[in-house]
Amino acid sequence: MLPNQMVKTLIxxxxxxxxxxxxxxxxxxxxxxxxxxxxxxxNAVEYKNDEKVRNLGHIVLRGNNVILIQPYE
Length: 73
Known about the structure:
- The protein has 73 residues and is mainly β.
- The chain has one helix at residues 3-8; strands spanning 14-19, 25-33, 39-48, 51-61, 66-71.
């Protein structure tokens, strides 16, 4: 299974995203993903050291800045 197909199986689920050059993680519901791995998250929240920093709402993350995508429980 290709990586973008694997990520597409997570649509509608909560995911945790680690971004390049950032100390904080983003958690939100994956709404869509394209072939460039650009991610659209809803109900996104920023966490730093497992502490909530702020609510971000709907955001789009550029695929070339994403380091890690994992399911979030």
